Amino acid sequence: MFARLPVLASIMPVLMGMALLSFFLRYLRWHYLLQRAGQAQPFWLGFYIYLSGFAYTATPGKVGELIRIRYLQRLGISHEQVLSAFIYERGWDLLVVLLLTMPGMLAAPLFPVLALFVGVVLLLLAILMRQPRWLGRLHAKLRWHRCHRSYRLMRLLRRGMRGGLRWLGWQDLAVAAVAGVAAWSLTATAFVWLVESLSPGMSWLALFSSYPLAMLAGAASMLPGGIGSTESVIVGSLLWQGGSMATAVLAAVGIRFATMWFAVLLGMAAIVLAEWKLPESAAV
Fold first, then answer.
1. If we measure between CA atoms, which residue out of 87, 39, 45, 47 comes closest to residue 66?
2. Is the CB of residue 250 less than 8 Å from the CB of residue 1?
3. DSSP code of 282?
4. DSSP string, 114-176
5. What is the per-residue pLDDT across 62-109, written as a single tens digit (0 to 9) for each?
6. Coil, helix or strand for 53?
7. Going along 222-280, which residue ranges are E strands?
8. What is the Cα–Cα distance from 86 to 68, expressed in whole angstroms?
9. Residues 6 or more apart in contact with residue 262 via CB below 8 angstroms
10. Secondary structure of residue 222 in the 3-state scheme
11. Residues 234/227, Cβ–Cβ less than 8 Å
12. How far is residue 183 from each of residues 63, 106, 177, 198, measured CA to CA in Å?
């Protein structure tokens, strides 16, 4: 395993570049959604703000990425709009990653469980978007019992769910689907290239679906950033395909550093830039 570390180090810049391009594709989707909602933002400043959310991406459900609210509000974009776009994005990411898992991992023992998880989450999101009064009833009960913090949170969540209905037209669905497939396919391709560089000869299709499978496992575990669960599934899927333990461990470490931990570093740098570009006194 240690003998292959130079190979991993040599390809890491390319992996990080592919991850950055994937982030940019996801930002294009985000920028489009806010524009369709009538919430314009400067393109490149918006990109820095989008990246700032990655500083807290290692949180359950990536809810820490909502720190974007802090900066987008200074541009006149309401927190309800940001929450709506966030929920809409998370739903599409789950669906796209599941679809990318299917070509090579349908026979994987973990796939039925993860497919059920995605189905339940998407069904719940669809119901709450179409029936926001259910959250309204819970919101009213919390207010009656004077649970002020929970009441405000539930009110925000209800508005965020209801706001997602504006993007259910065919054009918006098509743009979100294409951007999501392109972004996550790029990351899956980076994983294929990583494993092939470490140990050539494994099935390309199975490798392509292995990383999306691990991402779903991380999401289902509800651990911060899927830390531990995602890496375990990467190692397990490569061993299941006949790879060696050394290759599996290096691939797990390499792809996670090039994606999640690289995203965290970018997010921290973006926060510094956003604080400089958008001071507290910025007009709202």
1. 87
2. yes
3. S
4. HHHHHHHHHHHHHHHHH-THHHHHHHHHHHHTT-HHHHHHHHHHHHHHHHGGGG-SHHHHHHH
5. 888 889 999 998 888 988 889 889 989 999 999 999 999 999 888 888
6. helix
7. none
8. 10
9. 16, 19, 20
10. coil
11. no
12. 20, 21, 10, 23
Token match 């796209």: residue?
Answer: 96
In this structure, the chain runs to a length of 284
- Output the six-digit token pair for 102: 């299917």
Sign of the C-alpha dihedral computed for residues 188, 218, 69 and 122 taken in this order: positive
Distances (CA, A) of 76 to 27, 42, 79, 156, 280: 19, 12, 9, 17, 13
CB of 278 closer than 8 Å to CB of 74: yes
Structural domain spans, the chain: 2-38+78-263
Count Cβ atoms below 10 Å from residue 26 Cβ, excluding itself. Answer: 19
Single-letter code of the amino acid located at 96: V
Whether the CB-CB separation of 110 and 213 falls below 8 Å is answered with yes
Q: What distance in Å separates the CA atoms of residue 217 and residue 215, rounded to the nearest whole number? A: 5
pLDDT tens track for 12-42:
999 999 999 999 999 999 999 999 988 888 9
Burial of residue 14 (number of CB atoms within 10 Å: 0-12, 13-18, 19+) = middle
Tell me, what amino acid is at 63? Answer: V
Continuous H helices in 65-110: 68-72, 79-105
φ, ψ at 283 (rounded to 5°):
-65, 140
Helices 111-130 and 148-163, axial angle in degrees (round to 10): 90
| Tokens standing for residue 229 | 């669960």
Report the distance separating Cα 270 and Cα 45, nearest Å. 10
pTM > 0.90: yes or no: no
Distance from C-alpha of 23 to C-alpha of 49, rounded to nearest angstrom? 12
Q: Assess contact for 189 and 208: CB atoms under 8 A.
A: yes
